[in-house]
Amino acid sequence: MKNNGFGESAGRRYVVVGALGFAYMLNFLDRQLLAILVEPIRAELHLSDTQIGMLSGLMFALFYTLFGIPVAIIADRGNRIRLVAAACGLWSLFTALSGFARGFASLAFARIGVGIGEAGCAPPSFSILSDYFPPEQRGRALALYALGIPAGSFIGAFAGGWIAAEYGWRTAFLALGAVGLAFAPLLPLIVREPQRGRYDAPRETIDQPGIAQTLAFFWHSPLFILTSLGCGLTAFCGYGLLSWTPAYLGRVQGMTLGQISAFFAIASAGSMVLGAWIGAWIADRAGARNPVNYSRLPGFAFLASAPFIVGFGFADSWQASLALLVPALIFTSIHFVPALTLLQNRTPPQYRATVSSILLFLINLIGLGCGPLFVGMMSDGLTPTHGDRALGIALQSLAPFAILAFVCQMAAASQIRKEGHAA
Length: 423
Prior knowledge:
CATH architecture: Up-down Bundle
Order of helices and strands: HHHHHHHHHHHHHHHHHHH
Mean pLDDT: 86
Structural class: mainly alpha
Number of strands: 0
CATH class: Mainly Alpha
Protein name: MFS transporter
Membrane topology: Multi-pass membrane protein
Helix content: over 70%
Shape: globular
Main location: membrane
Oligomer: single chain
Number of helices: 19
Number of domains: 1
CATH superfamily: MFS general substrate transporter like domains
Keywords: Membrane, Transmembrane, Transmembrane helix, Transport
InterPro entries: MFS, MFS_dom, MFS_spinster-like, MFS_trans_sf
Largest sheet: none
């Protein structure tokens, strides 16, 4: 089997992708679990849609983003594998503790703990994979890793919904949290910490920068800022849909929890898998031929998602709702791998984990923090006049943000073109 020049076979490198991707799957499983269980949790704990939006969005994302950058700085200086393993154990513990919640405050405490733990997953993993794969293969590796998003969403929705339907929502949190607690100590036994920056030119290996220097590197790049804003606005739509579609299907379209766990899990996971692989093709093929495509093609996808988001709220059956949800999720899932590849390839190795964490900071603060909360607040505000249909209208209100994301991506594409001319 082909060796990468550092004593590792291609098979071994993909074992690393698989192990880190499994941790990422657990990361998103814990996020999707709350979304699929919104209705039974809301009924038992007597929560409003705004409170649910805070729990699934802002309360989680605020601490996830605040801890993300300092954790990434540690990753740029220390053992990244051990950091990911410790983070996995922490978020899994708090996922299990969510099953003991007795009200908004105790569930908020558990979600904050999950957010702090999950801050240590993705940025160190991006950095690790960049040291296992050369630049021309990073898009493929990051796409495989990103499959943890649909896989976690599928298992969180399917297994979580089934367990909740059979044994109650508290048992679902306890059971799925236990899986992460069992896996966390195995990760350092599977993945070896790689030499940092080993695929990069010697001239790129410089003294470890301070936090001010790292932040300046990011914020002085209009391309990085525009890409992050575009991705954040897309995540605003994507997380809004993912967080509230299960509740919409149950509350408005009359689906049972068992039906939602099966059909929504398949529709959402299949859409995100296809979106991730289209994104991988953009990263490794179209972007390699013309770097402008890293931004331009995802931008057109953002624009294409808007009419499907609007149509989703007009559907008169759950089958029609899911049929419109699929293309909306495909188009809002394409951006992630091209954005990661663009940033990883244009960032020296000593900055990578921290730069990735800044990207995730903006994606999650704008998207995960505000998207679900926006939908919840809109739903509560419209309920007195529109009843249960208010949630569908609130979901339709996400469409203008997809158009704003398109504008940001077109500006980023223009910046790539400008930098190319300057070079």
